[in-house]
Fold this sequence. Notes:
Elements: E1 15-17, E2 23-30, E3 36-42, E4 51-55, E5 57-61, E6 65-72, E7 79-87, E8 90-95, E9 98-100, E10 111-113, H1 126-130, E11 133-136, H2 138-141, H3 170-175, H4 177-183, E12 187-190, E13 194-195, E14 206-210, H5 217-229, E15 233-238, H6 248-256, E16 275-276, E17 279-280, E18 284-285, E19 288-292, H7 299-316, E20 320-323, H8 331-344, E21 349-352, E22 369-372, H9 373-383, H10 390-401, H11 406-409, E23 413-415, H12 424-427, H13 432-444, E24 448-452, H14 480-495, H15 497-501, E25 503-509, E26 516-521, E27 525-532, E28 538-543, E29 550-551, E30 560-561, E31 564-569, E32 573-580
Parallel strand pairs: 11-12, 11-24, 12-15, 15-20, 20-21, 21-22, 22-23, 23-24
Antiparallel strand pairs: 1-2, 2-6, 3-4, 3-7, 5-6, 7-8, 7-10, 8-9, 13-14, 16-17, 18-19, 25-26, 26-27, 27-32, 28-31, 29-32, 30-31
Organism: Paenibacillus lycopersici
GO molecular function: hydrolase activity, hydrolyzing O-glycosyl compounds
Protein name: Alpha-glycosidase
Amino acid sequence: MFQECFRHSTRSVWAYAYDMQTIHLRVRTKRDDVEEVTVIAGDKYDWDRFNEERPLTKIAADRFFDYWEAAVKPKFSRYAYIFRLRQGEETVYLTEDGVSVDRPQPAAGYFDFPYIHEIDLFAAPEWAKSAVFYQIMPDRFASGDAALNPEGALEWGEAPTADSCFGGDLKGILDHLDHIAELGATAIYLTPVFQAPSSHKYDTIDYRRVDEHFGDKNALKQLVDACHARGIRVVLDAVFNHTSERFLPFQDVLKHGEQSKYANWFHVRSFPAEVKDGIATYDTFGFNGQMPKLNTANPETKQYLLDVAEYWIRETDIDGWRLDVADEIDHHFWRSFRQTVKAVKPDAYIVGEVWNDAGPWLLGDQFDSVMNYPFAGKTLAFFTGEGQDGRAFAEAVNGLLMRYAQPTNEVVFNLLSSHDTPRVLTMAGGDKRKLKLAVVFLLTYIGTPCIFYGDEIGMQGGNDPECRGCMVWDEERQDRELFDFYKLLIGLRKASPALRSGRFRFLRAESGDARIVYERLGEAEHFTVWMNPTGEQTVLEHPMETNDWRDALTGEPAPVSDGVQRVELEPYGYRILRREL
Length: 581
């Protein structure tokens, strides 16, 4: 065995409390190198009376490693343990002190999980585990009150530019809640609604004022109330990393320089605060001098923003915050942010914008979730490309799953497109069959899925600003067949607990073959999903022990013969099979 590949730690994703009764333990080994992993555990204060051995299950594999996991339930909320690893006749023990060929006496040198504290649990809102989000840019969704339109607003449906406005508002969203409810979405994520000079509103002027072109606080409250009446949650976008240059405290800095009482609200490297040769003398979002970066470590700035987060929950009863450019803000701020938000609404959902591995923000003390752009990238590359490799895709997905603990994976914010990326149908080259495969994966995968407005009726668009086109409301120009497809898959997910919280595992993913099979396994139902991301008709086979499978969408039987299930798939086709347990 390649002992240098062994990995376990008593921290983070390797050993964590799933709930008050259960600890999850993970071990990493070299791929296809270890036959069996067993945890040997007991109570460090009375080992002789309270000890056990429990096998670990191989739950995932990436390019180089296998990952093993066990869910254990210590009798007294504490656990001392080591692992026994075996390959053929070779057996070794993995302890906190290293690797040994002899089993050490308990419990010196053993790994130790001292106690399960409820306050330390990763506690995301339960409702988020079952939610299907729908992302809306208010200016581009619908116009409900033309009197609110900004001067120079373009005709609805014209090609968008970086600076164009179209007059979408909160009343327009309210008027079209039937569309969102019919689709089956149970939550809405709104990009910023607060006063700002741009159409996208990521350059805030006043954090306590709804932009006058969208409506007012009462309009927002009316929208939230109407959503809640339909069982739809509402999450707003918070831009706490930076502001507009027209934000009054920054205007004061421009006017008074170092003497401004707001001088420490920003990261000014040298005064006066100005832009020279395209580079500002103060920190900004990117190199945009019109978006000065806030100093969230400054106590006054910090309290101001925390008050804003609390204010909108109290005033309008929103259900959470999506946090823009979250990885460029200090962790101390986010810990205080979580405490503030959860104090006023314990089941508020906190989603950070982090485009890479977000582990440091997902330890239970900051965010509930992050926008899972790595998922989008790997999923779209696989389903919209040609000649893809099923094993490589499975390895990439498993790598993402092993980044985070199970409670995080259950609520991570999965998406295929957004206001910052090309639309999914455009990524698929306009081929709806490829789009559908990606959407099936999104809606049968673990986590919280999100649909970008208009994707469900076939809108296309490249990178910003093309992806931010006006919603198409003329049904003659909508792809209603695609809408019905989204509606069907969302309905299946909402009706099936295993698709929301069951175990995810690849059953078939081979080198040089794009065809894959994976499963979602819950307490009362079992799903398998069969996919053919190729242009050829095919028959997939996989061993099955039972013959009680049915097509989850049609109800037709899916027979098993001689212990093998054979599924015929059209080019770029899929089938979702289900059995009751």
